[in-house]
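User: Please fill in residues for this 177-position structure.
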């Protein structure tokens, strides 16, 4: 009697999904650290930063989108939410993957259309995000973990619900983008 081994479909654990999402949300750490050091008081002018253009202030508020992790022949796309705040010229915030957790956003650097930031995942893993903002205010890019690409991300400004409305973020289930 021969034994047949059947291949089970890959079903990621919630920890694997969370790790993948964290990796999608943080840009290259070394670049962000260099840019932050250059922007520190007394460090001189920041190279590539253009006042009056699309600056870090335009990140202020909530952003919704997706992160897509390639897993062999298939991909997992999950919703992501980012809330950016600016205080004393410094941009920070919180990144959330619904049902998976959230983490702080730090090291936000904007150079023209390029935007980089770091998200610290619940397990303490650093997710470096590196993206480009289009004229339509869509930010698309890659999430890196340990300097290796983890996921693609795409976010847009959240639409504000009218006062008193009990709205929820738009579902991205079934989306091909």
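Assistant: Residues filled in for all 177 positions:
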């Amino acid at each position: 009697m021969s034994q047949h081994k059947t291949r089970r479909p890959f079903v990621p654990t919630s920890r694997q999904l969370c790790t993948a999402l964290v990796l999608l949300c943080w840009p290259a750490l070394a670049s962000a650290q260099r840019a932050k050091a250059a922007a520190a008081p007394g460090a001189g002018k920041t190279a590539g930063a253009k006042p009056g253009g699309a600056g870090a202030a335009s990140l202020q508020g909530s952003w919704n989108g997706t992160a897509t992790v390639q897993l062999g022949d298939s991909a997992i796309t999950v919703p992501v939410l980012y809330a950016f705040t600016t205080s004393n010229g410094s941009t920070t915030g919180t990144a959330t993957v619904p049902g998976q957790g959230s983490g702080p956003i730090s090291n936000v650097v904007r150079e023209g259309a390029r935007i980089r930031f770091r998200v610290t995942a619940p397990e303490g893993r650093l997710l470096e995000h590196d993206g480009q903002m289009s004229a339509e205010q869509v930010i698309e890019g890659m999430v890196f973990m340990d300097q290796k690409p983890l996921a693609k991300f795409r976010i847009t400004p959240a639409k504000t619900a009218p006062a008193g409305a009990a709205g929820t973020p738009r579902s991205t289930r079934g989306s091909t983008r």
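For context: The CA atoms of residues 113 and 135 lie 9 Å apart.
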